[in-house]
Structures are given as C-alpha cells and as structure tokens.
Amino acid sequence: EYNFVAASAEMAGRWEQFMRDGERYNLQYRTQRDDKVRPEHAALDRVTLPPSDSFWEEFYPPNGWNCRCTVVQVRKSKYPETPHDEAMRLGDEALQRDTKGIFRFNAGKEGKAVPDYNPYTIRRCSTCPIAKGGKDRKLAFVPDNEVCQACALVHQCEQLRGEVIKLGKGTIEISHLVDRADGDYDRLLSVARHFAADGARVVLTPKMTRPARFEYDCVYGSLRGTRYDGKCPDLKIDDYWYEHEGFVTDNPKRAFSNMVNHGLKQSDRIIIDKPDLTDAYMKRVINQRLKDGHHISEVWLNENGHLRLLYKKSEE
Prior knowledge:
Blueprint: H1 2-21, E1 26-30, H2 39-42, E2 48-49, H3 55-59, E3 70-74, H4 84-94, H5 107-110, H6 129-132, H7 146-160, E4 162-167, E5 170-175, H8 185-197, E6 201-204, H9 213-220, E7 235-237, E8 240-245, H10 252-264, E9 269-273, H11 279-291, E10 298-303, E11 306-312
Parallel strand pairs: 5-6, 8-9, 9-10
Antiparallel strand pairs: 1-2, 1-3, 4-5, 6-7, 7-8, 10-11
C-alpha cells in the first residue's frame, strides 16, 4: 500500500509536467524490462499515445500493487502511435483481475494518490460529491455507514484547517472558513501580526452560528467545560482565547462600555479599538466590572494597529 501511494504521487507529478507541455509530445508506457515484470504489464511496454487519449485515464501507472511501470514523453516522429483499440485491449488484459476497478484511474488527472473506490471504501464513493471534491461537498444526509460518516468528518476537518503564515518567530493560522471580506478581518489580521511578531502562535477563527458539535469542537474544543463553552471568540493566541471589539460612535464612553460588555461574553481576554478616552477612565470602568463580579484577565487597546496592554490580572 505504501509503495502504491508513493508511486501514484510520483506519477501524478509526472502528469502535471506532461500537461504543461500539452500535445507537443506523445506519452509512452514503459516497464522496467526485467524478470520481475508481470507478463500482462510487459504487453503494455512501448504503448504510445497522445496525452489526450482516454487510454491514460484508465491505464496510467501504477497498475497494481508494487507496480513499477512508468510513462515518459517521446517525440512524435520517433515512435509510431499505438492504435487506440489495441491499447485499450492490452490494458483490459493487464487489469483483468482488477474486478473492482481499484487501479483504473489516473492519479494526476484526479489529483489523488488512491481512487475514490479502494479496499477501504465502498462503491458509492465513486459517485459521492464529497469524495469528488467539487464545490458542492455536502450531502442531503450522511448514510448510516461507518465509512461514510468517517469520511464526512475527515472532510470537515480538512475544511477547518487553515493557511499558516510565518511571521517573525511566530505564526498566523487562518481557517479556510474565515471570511476575508468581512469588515473585521483586516483589524484581526493586524492584531495577529502584532502577537506573531513576538513569537506567538495565533489562530484566526471563523464566525460560526449554531455550528454542529463536531465543527465546534474542531475549532473551539478547548473551551468545552469552561464558562465560555459554546462561545466563539475571534482568535487564539498561544493557549488563550481573545475577543476583539470595535465600535464607531460619537459617544466614546458608551462605546467603551458596550465593547467591554460584549467582549466579556466571549472571553475574559479582550482587545478593544481604543476610543477617545483616558486610560484612567477606562481603568475605572474595568475596576467597576471587577467589583460587579466579572472575570477579566486582560484588556488590550488597539490604537491604529499598535497594541498595548491596558490591564492584566495580577498573579495570585
């Protein structure tokens, strides 16, 4: 199985190269020409056809477990083309034992090291939109089958993975589900850059409205069992969650109060777009919240992209 996946990956890379050259060259099937070559594969040796021929959709190597066959580009003037029907007949004979069609695929064209239908899947995988990887990767319902249910979860995990950007000594991970057109995105990215530059691992998270339990746990699993279980703060910096708040208003005192109130519903660490207020006034508001029983660990101020710490809970 390892050899098969490795060979598929290598041949997929070759196919990308072939596609860059288009129809300039023909493709030729080649074996290793030693005593280990299977007779049915030996019959395919030197089959020569254009890249656009459908033969390569079914019989592009590897064509079996531990298959060592390959394909090379050849000049059209050097080798005659093999008749299509003859090539298909030889291919069918080579894979006559492959009754389930496990090896009849082109890793390069399909962009995967194993076909949708293989020893670990079921026949329905061949037509399933999730396995095909198209734009519509949702099912009306997930069949009551362990393979289908596991597949759906794995693809959800893949969708929740993010782009990782290295910055200074730290990194910024941006979930694929984050809406980069959202009005808060640029401000959150600016905040992320500040902390990543100091060596932090920052994760920007997607906005979720009543997400499925599995999706929520993939992103916010560390909040389970805490007072913020079910909440969706904006970003995670190392091991801690932070909520970013920003308001545009003519009443800065009301804006600051609202930002603190809204932010503390998501996390005890908040980052606020600084209103036109003195630090003394803002600290009085924070101290009053503490007296009222609110949990506040950190409050940061974002001043046009420059962050500074306004309040931090003292270590007990």
